[in-house]
Amino acid sequence: MHEILKGKKAVFLDVGNTLEYAASGDFMVTLAFLQASGEKITTVPREVSNKALSDGYRHLLKYHGVKDEKLISEQFVVFYKILSDEMGLGLSDETIREIADDRLYNSDNFKLYPGVPEALDALSKQFRLGVISDTWTSLDDQLEKLGILKYFSFRTYSCDVGAFKPEKAIFDDALAKCGCEAGDVVFVDDNLKILKGAAALGITPVLMVAEASSDVATEFLKIHSLKELL
User: What is the rounded CA–CA span in Å between residue 12 and residue 187?
Assistant: First the structure.
């Protein structure tokens, strides 16, 4: 095992761009959305698409923490409606709903990085493993379909806590579920700002740079694959 794990009792793990990546290259601009949009989306100016995504996320944020799955589903419909309208894609209401349902329930949108199951299996034999993820709905079904739910002793989802990383409440929830002190834990995430928040609480940070966009200058340990912790 990597020396950074010496004396530790638990490993907390982010999900997106740490354990898995988006099949389309973006966790919200899915393959179903791209296919339905066709060539039209290739002509949308970058500033227009960026604004549409920003407006869509702003809408979803209003419903973060809502437990009603049907209501959340409806807000994802609104999200893709905003994208269609602002990008001028002209998608029908039926198509938009199909895209929203696909994003929420189709696990094929998410792919594990190579070696993740093997690394989790090895780590789980020596440490308590937990997930910390910013999400609007539970990821349990997704993790189950990917075959890795069994490795985690607990999961902390922002929608359940009502807070996003790096807010203290989300780390407090994970630590309470784990039964560990902050100093006993390593946290792997692809976002430096989030890791700085964890480090401020005494958690040992590790920057995952599975994607080039995450590779920024830091004094924290960097890894390109979860297998590097072994």
Answer: 5
User: In this predicted structure, what is the pLDDT of residue 63?
Assistant: 92
Give the pLDDT band of residue 65 (cuts 50, 70, 90): confident
Distance CA 95, CA 82 (A): 13
Structure tokens at 53: 């995504």
Classified as helix, coil or strand, 154 is strand
> What's the rounded Cα separation, in Å, for the pair 85 and 211?
30
What's the predicted TM-score (pTM) here? 0.93
5's tokens: 């794990």
For the chain, give every domain's residue range: 3-19+113-229, 31-108
Tokens at 174, concatenated: 């994970």
Q: 113: which DSSP letter?
A: P
Pair 127, 229: CB distance under 8 Å: no
16 DSSP assignment: B
| Angle at which helices 168-178 and 192-200 cross, to 10° | 60
Residue 78 · residue 93 · CB < 8 Å: no
CATH class assigned to 3-19+113-229: alpha beta
